Amino acid sequence: MNLIFLGPPGSGKGTQARRISHELNIPHLSTGDFLREAVRDDTELGKKARKYMEAGDLVPDDIIIELIEEKFRNGELNNGGILDGFPRTIPQAEALNMMFEKHRTVIDKVILLAVSDQEVIKRLSGRFYCPTCHAGYNYPVQVPRKEGLCDKDGTKLLRRHDDEVDVVMNRLDVYKKQTASIVDFYRRANKLSEIKADDGPDLISERILKLLTEVKQV
Ligand code: AP5
């Protein structure tokens, strides 16, 4: 199954993509994760992407499209997968259609996770992560046992730079100006389903799995 998880920052794309990829046994490909790794490792890609990510702006299309084309070339999407955070612009969506066409496969479903700006700000201002083992925490719902320290290895927890409130406001603005148009792109292609995503993660996973069961039966 080829799935795209779409939605504003903090809508739960990563959380749900991890759960559903585990459930369906298909890979989860997150452009945000690939880019953060490249920035951390200070690769050529990371050097190009850093300033856009820190400001909460989109990395230029040609860089991102090449990143996903490479995943297709490497066969990482041969048996389906979940794309999380890609596409984010019309040129990216058009390029992805061509990639699927070239590999004689199709997008089965685009799932839009719909949440309010207020919920996004609450979730992202509470998010922390462990730089050693990458475990995630979120105040007040998933609090570490010792204040500010990872439960698994005791490392001091950090925040993503782009979770600072001014950057989050820009990310929301960028989503509305540059990414929301692809919602209509996929709606017109009859691929889009919207999921109410401001409840707890378990309920949202249930909604997605129910929807996917219906897709498989069609
Ligand atoms: P990316 O990492 O993709 O950031 P994002 O889309 O802004 O998404 P987030 O990771 O912040 O949120 P999410 O929706 O995945 O939610 P999550 O599950 O993490 O991209 C980062 C940057 O990379 C971009 O700004 C851009 O610069 C660049 N980039 C990436 N892709 C690009 C592209 N295609 N083109 C150009 N540039 C690109 O959840 C968030 C928090 O909420 C977590 O703490 C989680 O535990 C919590 N949470 C999740 N679900 C719930 C729930 N139901 N209830 C309560 N809390 C919840």
Short description:
With 218 residues, the chain is α/β, with parallel strands linked by helices.
Tell me the layout of helices and strands:
Layout lengths: L1 E5 L6 H12 L3 E3 H10 L3 H12 L5 H13 L7 E4 L5 H13 L6 E6 L2 H9 L1 E3 L6 E3 L26 H15 L1 H8 L3 E5 L4 H17 L1
Parallel strand pairs: 1-3, 1-4, 2-3, 4-7
Antiparallel strand pairs: 5-6
The chain binds BIS(adenosine)-5'-pentaphosphate.
Please provide a written account of the structure:
The protein is of the alpha/beta class and 218 residues long. It is built from 9 helices and 7 strands. The strands form 2 sheets. Strands 2-3-1-4-7 form a 5-stranded parallel sheet, with helices on both faces. Strand 5 and strand 6 form a beta hairpin. It is globular and about 50 Å long. The two termini are 13 Å apart. The mean pLDDT is 95. It binds BIS(adenosine)-5'-pentaphosphate (AP5). BIS(adenosine)-5'-pentaphosphate binds next to helix 1, helix 2, helix 3, strand 6 and helix 9.
